[in-house]
Amino acid sequence: MSMPNFLATNRRGFVGALAALGLQQLFAGDVFAQTPAPSDTWLDGMKGKHKLFFDVPEPDGGTALRHAHGYLDGWRDVYGVAERDVNLVVGLYGRTTPWGVTDAMWEKYKLGAAIGLTDSTTNAPPVRNWFAHPKPGDPVGDGTPASSIEALQARGVTFLLCNNALQRWSGRLEKSRLGSAKDIHADLSAHALPGVVIVPNVLVSMTKAFEHGFGSVRT
Fold first, then answer.
1. DSSP 86-143
2. Where are the chain's structural domains?
3. What is the pLDDT, as a whole number, of residue 20?
4. If pLDDT is split at 50, 70 and 90, which confidence band does 138 have?
5. Residue 184: C-alpha distances to residues 105, 106, 138, 160, 188 (Å)
């Protein structure tokens, strides 16, 4: 029996996401004691008629945030669908992991430099999370505060932050002599942006979303 196109597309996207995250990290087990206990509570209340999971491993100038803004606007303005009937979840891992933590962590661990960003006003890597709350002129999304994590959260978008990715980043930052991986991991975990949900493994969470009727797209 052939696989339906929708499921085949999701399967290809899931396999690609596995490659991006690294199979060895998926199956190596917990690295630090701070691994969050498995919980699907972030799915509670996701009763919207239209459900989509954004798979976002690459920053790409905040394109995913612009797409999320446009996605919600499209349902509302073109189809007359209220935002309560749209469930949008954004999965952060890979090089978008820094999106999920506070300005203090960006400054302390030089996260802007780590993902290759330059602040045009200073000609130096940014030391604040402009994806969370951009200032006018920041090259994020469509260049407006409406395409920011905080603005999208206010419209009901859920952001998931992968603990596996936090572990990998902690090891990377340890190699840069910014502290021990265990301490960095605890620090990053304690300074997730308000409302951002840390999940053990974002790809497992993606599967959970599929099982609850979500589609998915990499953006």
1. EEEEEEE-GGGGGGGB-HHHHHHHTHHHHTT--BTTTTB--SS-TTTSPPTT--STTS
2. 48-218
3. 46
4. confident
5. 10, 12, 27, 19, 6
CATH architecture of 48-218: 3-Layer(aba) Sandwich (3.40)
Mean pLDDT score, 155-160:
98
What's the rounded Cα separation, in Å, for the pair 146 and 194? 17
Q: What is the pLDDT of residue 136?
A: 81
DSSP-derived secondary structure letter, 38: P
Please tell me the distance from the alpha carbon of residue 132 to that of residue 73, in angstroms, as a whole number: 19
Q: Determine the Cα–Cα distance for residues 93 and 166; give it in Å rounded to an integer.
A: 8
Predicted TM-score (pTM) of the model is: 0.84
**Residue 5 has which token pair?**
């196109």
As a whole number of angstroms, the distance between CA 193 and CA 164 comes to: 17
The one-letter code for the residue type at 49 is: K
Strands (E), the chain: 50-56, 86-92, 158-162, 197-199, 215-218
The three-point CA angle 42-193-190 to 5° equals: 90
